[in-house]
Design a protein that fits this description.
α8 packs across α9. The protein has twelve helices and 28 strands. The strands form seven sheets. An eight-stranded parallel beta barrel has the order 3-6-9-10-11-12-13-14, surrounded by five helices. A six-stranded mixed sheet has the order 1-18-2-23-27-26, with helices on one face. A six-stranded antiparallel sheet has the order 17-21-22-28-24-25, with helices on one face. The radius of gyration is 25 Å and the shape is globular. β12, α10 and β13 form a beta-alpha-beta unit. Helix content is 28%, strand content 26%. It is of the alpha/beta class. The protein starts with a strand and ends with a strand. The structure holds alpha-L-arabinofuranose (AHR). The site of alpha-L-arabinofuranose (AHR) has 10 residues, from loops.
């Protein structure tokens, strides 16, 4: 039995609390039945219980609202990588695909439906070899470059600063621009910020005006380098901390633009990186990033197929996704030592599942399919971020379109929404809502010697007082019955939606775009103390409680 937020309570207790909820007559019948069953052979009992729903107990502390869940936790990352920008976002003004100033509109409409709060660009590894002045001015005059990290293809720089900020305006989202520390100069970074945000009669602001944009943009989020421990320059934390201090000094606040400065943070469990950044940079940064990818096999050479896998891989992948909980807690505990008031945000600006590329596609383009398993990974991770809303202030799934755990896939003029897209859509209810603490006692989901919690949850209350609960049943074989006690609220009406599919490998294709999509969920009952719900096997459920 697994639980969160309270001491371990074992299976019999969960059954006991369920037992307490039912009538005395029913209790007598159940006792009789139980004695008869005990008298029968053990094999029968094991077989019978495997076919039943697992019993689980949830307490939602509606009486103890906590931090606001920053909507930026539901952010995206778009890099000049494969077909994320070119084709996925930018088709050019002359394209037959419907576009506004070169930006495709089917994708804009789909991302707007997710209430996309923030978009990170231009990388990733690409950011540390990107020279922004190559991406402004008349497109036909922009110099090309080689995208050395991603397939060695020639980048024509047709999508640059103006196009990106236009995209953000079309999406009505915050831009998050990542600057070049690895191969760029301090002056180059300083001028970029001036170009985008200054309203003065100054050289860079005037260059922007010459290029057709009079008004400065608001660019609140600025990253000082990406993965400086790796593709961003292979630096030690001490060296990067000094570089950060130097570059950041010249990232200025022009007019009323106040930059939220994001320093490059750790690669997964590199806790020393966080220690050094907190000690040597401290409050010179507003946010510290964290990158963690779920690799189904832990073998970079063969990460496994996105759509062909067995239950062992399903279990292992979800176990690895759950490691985000440990990472956020441990990095958070280090940050707490010198920042107990949690002024510095944890910015998980790259996360998601990383599979082998789809057969026959360019290995440098990181194009992968997206199945129900990806949806569970997304939902688990977003629940974890919600649970740590006091520290996690932004997260950006990698990546938005056609790359890694994308929410959208395109094939020229065709577009499909992945199961991960549907999770983001179902979770929009948590944007800027107040986190409600939860205590969960969940039956374990076992596989060989390994076990993980069978359920995963977060809950929040929105500004209208409505409570939303997002629950995942990780077990692909067994439904889960959850008895939920609501403390400090009454469940008068309940509405639900569910995302599931007949198989663990189910995914959407251009031929069948609706194989995995949300449906109405009605397997619940309200009670005096809360409600019960029976979650289908391998599912994500969102409940609205009023
Ligand atoms: O998202 C793909 C790559 O993964 C990014 O460019 C890099 O930052 C990370 O290693």
């Amino acid at each position: 039995m697994f639980q969160t937020s309270s001491p371990t309570i074992h299976n019999p207790l969960a059954l006991k609390s369920y037992f307490n909820l039912i009538s005395p007559m029913k209790k007598t019948r159940i006792c009789l039945l139980a004695s008869c069953l005990t008298a029968l052979c053990g094999a029968f009992i094991i077989h019978a219980s495997a076919a039943d729903a697992t019993a689980n107990k949830l307490v939602i502390r509606a009486d103890q609202p906590k931090a606001t869940i920053d909507r930026n936790i539901y952010g995206f990352f778009s890099e000049h990588l494969g077909r994320c920008i070119y084709e996925g976002t930018w088709v050019g003004e002359d394209s037959t695909i419907s576009n506004v100033r070169g930006i495709r509109q089917d994708v804009v409409a789909a991302l707007k439906k997710l209430k996309t709060p923030v978009l990170r660009w231009p990388g990733g590894c690409f950011a540390d070899e990107y020279h922004w002045k190559d991406g402004i001015g008349p497109r036909e005059k922009r110099p090309a470059m080689i995208n050395t990290h991603w397939g060695g293809v020639v980048e024509n720089n047709h999508f640059g600063t103006h196009e990106f900020l236009d995209l953000c305006e079309q999406l009505e989202c915050e831009p998050y621009v990542c600057g070049n520390v690895g191969s760029g100069s301090v002056q180059e970074m300083m001028e970029w910020v001036e170009y985008m945000t200054s309203d003065a009669n100054s050289p860079m602001a005037n260059l922007r005006r010459q290029n057709g944009r009079d008004k400065p943009w608001k660019v609140r989020y600025f990253g000082v380098g990406n993965e400086s421990w790796g593709c961003g320059g292979n630096m030690t934390p001490e060296y990067y901390a000094d570089q950060y201090r130097r570059y950041n000094t010249f990232v200025k606040n022009y007019a009323d633009n106040r930059v939220y400065r994001i320093a490059c943070g750790a690669n997964a469990g590199d806790y020393k990186w966080t220690e050094v950044m907190m000690a040597n940079v401290g409050n010179r940064m507003n946010g510290l990033s964290l990158h963690y990818y779920t690799i189904p096999t832990s073998n970079w050479g063969d990460k496994g197929s996105a759509t062909q896998f067995d239950e062992g891989m399903w279990h292992g992948t979800l176990r690895r996704a759950l490691e985000m909980q440990t990472l956020v807690s441990k990095h958070g505990a280090i940050m707490d030592k010198t920042d107990p008031q949690k002024r510095i945000g944890m910015i998980v600006d790259e996360w998601g599942i990383w599979h082998n590329v789809e057969p026959g596609t360019n290995p440098g383009f990181l194009y992968q399919q997206n199945s129900l398993r990806d949806a569970l990974v997304a939902a688990i991770t977003l629940n974890i971020f919600n649970q740590h809303a006091d520290r996690v202030k932004m997260a950006n799934i990698a990546q938005t379109i056609n790359v890694l755990q994308a929410v959208i896939l395109t094939d020229k003029e065709k577009m499909l929404l992945t199961p991960t897209y549907h999770v983001f859509e179902m979770f929009t209810v948590h944007h800027d809502a107040k986190l409600l603490p939860t205590e969960l006692e969940a039956t374990a989901y076992r596989m060989n010697q390994d076990q993980i919690p069978g359920l995963n949850v977060s809950a929040s209350r929105d500004k209208d007082g409505k409570i939303h609960v997002t629950l995942c049943n990780l077990n692909p074989n067994t439904p889960a019955e959850v008895t939920c006690e609501l403390k400090g609220a009454k469940a008068q009406t309940l509405k639900g939606r569910v995302l599931t599919a007949p198989t663990i490998t189910a995914h959407n294709t251009f031929a069948q775009g609706d194989a995995v999509q949300p449906a109405e969920f009605t397997a619940f009952k309200t009670m005096e103390s809360g409600f019960t719900a029976t979650l289908p096997a391998k599912s994500v459920v969102v409940l609205a409680v009023e």
